[in-house]
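B., you asked whether I could sanity-check this one before it goes into the benchmark set. Here's the sequence:
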Amino acid sequence: MVAYAVRRLLHAVPVLLGVSVVVFLTMKLVPGDQAEALLGPQATPEGVAQMRRTLALDRPLYVQYTRWAWYAAHGDFGYSWNLGRPAIDVLVPKIGNTMILGVASFLLAVVLGVTGGVVAAGRSYSWIDRASVGVGALVGNAPPFWLGLVLVFVFAVFLGAFPSEGMHDLRSPGGLVDLLRHLALPALTTAAAPGAIILRQVRASVIETRLQDFVKVAYAKGLLRRVVFWRHIFRAALPPIITIAGLQLGYLMGGAIFSEVVFAWPGLGRQLYLAVTARDVAVVQGAVLFIAIAFVAINLLVDILVMVANPRLRTT
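And here's what the prediction gave me:
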């Protein structure tokens, strides 16, 4: 398993390299001059030329990329001229906030998806099954920003049960309770689509596994239904569930951007959105690289968990 993890890490290197090239070139394709955008409309030609030299924009494109990639590999993503500080100092404080939202959303998606899928599979083809799948499809296919606005209107504006924006940490006067109140709506918005996908996967896996011969043998031995389900059916159905749940973490990163923007959650996604609108190149490139690294690490972790859950894969 260690050798497998090392191989996957080595495979991740060209992926991250490709992502860095795409991000770098994409920012170069944005219309306009970065130096002029930073200096504003009152900039003089001399000032623009000096800024271009400062940012190395007067150098060949391959030189600009290798220079940026070298510094990025050492943790230096450049300087945010818009915010007046290094990009790494802008991004690092946001990572913790995004992790809070991401972990909460993932746990909520897993709990809702697994619970709904088990209930639907246990009552397969009944009205409970159809209702679970229908609600999951309706909520799961809703755009995150639209769902977020609906939740804000219902639970924040109309009912006044939850705050509509911002984030309070554990050091605020409200403590953990206040943090959870601010976290509830953005976490539910982010978890909706992944939860619906997990629900469908759990339902399909459980129904398929329930028809296998070893399940019939377990029932023939006189084992209780709950024992057969948890020890045999659910355990055998677990590997594809882990895989699909892990893949949803990648979606959570995209959905979190919309949730952070709608709910003004001070995380990496909102900072990326603000940097794109302000054309803050250093912050955009650093944020996308952080997200790419997290996505690769999550995929590696999911693959290892699948191997742990299904020992047969270790010999393949």
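One thing to flag: Residues 34-74 form one domain. Otherwise nothing jumped out at me.
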